[in-house]
Amino acid sequence: MLTANYSHPSIMRLFLFFLCIFRWFLFSSAAFKVTHLPGLLQQGALPFHLETGYIEVDEVYGVELFYYFIESERNPSEDPLLVWLSGGPGCSAFNGLSLEIGPLKFISERYNGSLPNLVYHPYSWTKISNIIFLDSPVGAGFSFSNHPQGYESGDKSSSKLAMIFLRKWLIDHQQFLSNPLYIAGDSYAGKVVPLVVHNILNAENDMEQQPKFNIQGYMIGNPMTGELIDFNARVPFAFGMGIISDELYQRIDENCKGEDYKNPKSSPCASLLQIFDNFKSELWDEQILEPKCSLDAPNPKYTVGTRRSMNVQESNTVLFGPPIPELKCRTYDYYLMYIWANSNIVQEALNVKKFVSLHSGDHDMIFPFVGTKEWVKSLKFSITDRWRSWHVGGQVAGYTESYSNNLTFATVKGAGHMAPVFKAKECLAMFRRWISHKLL
Asked: What is the DSSP letter of 244?
């Protein structure tokens, strides 16, 4: 887990598991208050404030980003405003809302043709923070473009559109302008979140840009930091976990020095990595202690431009969907989420535009902490607080180390990809301490 805090634009805390005359945009968002959700096993209105909506971020191609906004259950006027980006790239933000840090959780029960059931999540980060769950990049979740070229986006362009979204959202929600602002995300979002923050800080130097962001930091969990580091880290990770032998590890180290383990150039290296892949293929690399299950990502049969789309029958059942994992598998929740979000009655409740469909999925041996630590080392920051354990409820919750330039690295003991999915209580405690500027 990586995070960064800013008490001033020139001062950064990074924590890894983030005109003199006012010229306001003439803009009105399509905000919609959601009071009831189909499938929620609770009588009456939602126990939290939920708003959904679209904001246009590209007038040329008609790109509109969909969002879920949930107010803090503690003190919305003073608590931080967190913008959450899911990984993928291309996962819906509902992935974070219902499987990780939001106030909803699916009940893992066999799908019987009716709408999957949801319950309130007691370890939601919305207990202490306002959160915008943003479907970004365009094509993720319910975000869409009116032109095929609008879907042709990369990390840089999507990060700029995310900043445009936030600026317009704050103009329409000026009561949150003074709240401490944090940008967060996990997995592939580890590459995008810092770009969003970078764009925000650069924009702060432009006096004509309004409103100003009260940016305080960012957090990235189980992050992708760079393909070479992340993929190469899987071998020492597997060795450290006792998955591969001393001999195989040493032979890979001797024969693959300096090579990209994903695309090895020499035959000896490629042969050894194939042996490694055979060991790796027997495990679920999102959490190596849990059962290996089928893929959790939808596999669309049709593509519109560069956007993935899915057909839904009139009966509300998904015609082309993800493979169905065994009920015992954690990935079964992804399958339930897919069914739930593609239901017509759910999309009506969320006020979703009819021609948009949802796709989701997460693909930790994926981005091992070994690689994340290696990335931190490459920054060459001096250590200010050496490796130690951090605790929740009197038990070790993980290990942490702090560096100069306000950078902190932390592991979450027993968590997989992504950490809040597996250790919700511990991750909420970590987040609470972080936004309060306390040590883990």
From this structure: S
DSSP one-letter string for 348-404: HHTT--TT----------SS-HHHHHHHHHHTTPPEEEEEEEEEETTEEEEEEEEET
> Residue 115 domain-assigned?
yes
Q: Residue 323 falls within a domain, yes or no?
A: yes
C-alpha distances (whole Å) from 140 to each of 4, 13, 65, 309, 391 are 26, 29, 9, 10, 36
Tell whether 205 and 239 lie within a shared domain.
no
Q: In terms of domains, do 127 and 249 share one? A: no
What is the domain count for the chain? Answer: 2
Given a cut of 90, whether residue 431 has pLDDT beyond it is: no
Residue of higher predicted confidence among 31 and 209:
31
437 an active-site residue?
A: no
Confidence of residue 287 (pLDDT cuts 50, 70, 90): confident
Is 260 an annotated catalytic residue? no
Structural domain boundaries, residue 235: 229-280
Residues 366 and 309 in one domain: yes
Task: Please determine, for residue 320, whether its predicted confidence score (pLDDT) is greater than 50.
Answer: no
149 and 11 both lie in a single domain: yes
Tell me the CA distances in angstroms from 321 to 300, 349, 398, one per residue in order. 7, 22, 37
CB atoms within 10 A of CB 24: 9
What CATH number did the domain enclosing 433 receive? 3.40.50.1820
Query: Residue 244: pLDDT above 60?
Result: yes
Same domain, 177 and 54: yes
Q: φ, ψ for residue 422 (rounded to 5)?
A: -100, -30
The more confident residue out of 431 and 80 is: 80
Residue 78 resides in a domain: yes
Phi, psi dihedral angles at 323 (to 5 degrees) = -60, 150
Integer Cα distance of 122 and 54 in angstroms: 28
Catalytic residue among 136, 230, 364, 402: 364
Least Cα distance to 116 among 346, 392, 289 occurs for 346
What three-state secondary structure class fits 35? coil
CB 340 within 8 A of CB 116: yes
Same domain, 223 and 235: no
In 10 A of CB 40, how many CB atoms?
18
pLDDT at 355: 47
Most confident of 12-26, 84-98, 426-440: 84-98
Residue of 187, 309, 343, 360 with catalytic role: 187
The pLDDT value recorded for residue 420 is: 84
Note if 124 is an active site residue.
no
| Residue recorded with tokens 């902490």 | 369
DSSP of 46-113: -SS-EEEEEEEEETTTTEEEEEEEE--SS-TTTS-EEEEE--TTT--THHHHHHTSSSEEE------S
